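Many introductory courses stop at the sequence. We go one step further.
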Amino acid sequence: MIRTALAFLMASAIYFYQWTPYMYSSENVWYQGWYHLKGTDFLTWEKLGAGIEADEKFATHGAYSGSAIADDDKLTIFYTGNTRNEDWQRIPYQVIATMDKNNIITKRENPEITGTLDGYTDHFRDPKIWKNFDGEYYAIIGIQRKNLTGTAVIAHSKDTYNWQILGEIDTNLKKFLDICGNVLTTLNSKITECSFFTTRIRSARERLSQYLSDRIFNRR
């Protein structure tokens, strides 16, 4: 289970995780969404069912990771919609949805960012959104350069509409792709930590070594 978003709204903890109920049932099933839980003590959770679901427009091949923040009396959810066209080319969409106090989630009619960026591949996903002390919004989004090295870009919006890409985050690290970014801020909204789940291509030897290690130590 991969954590997708955790936020607090109306004295409740709202938790989403990536959910693929039909995985392995058919090779042509592309359903991936978010499952929705609500709780107050982090021990007991109420299951609310599907939260963000794949759709026929901007997430035909899965609703990928993202994040959510409490924004006044609603939850603002920012996630990646994954699509493929008839030539199997990926077209990513960065999509915003909102959830009201009755747990009703509504997707916006149009995505906030469509497609890829110049100089990068179609691996562009998993926005982590936060609201700055001045009331404006920022997001870090994982992305892969054309030379197959990974990084992340910062996006900015005054009102969660009309997002502008400000540039890359410079980590001086060599990796395949940065995904599932996270940001830790202080009470005055200063960024103190920025982290990513980093993926990379592994050799057959590495995969075999990991498989044997998992079998020996019963980790699977």
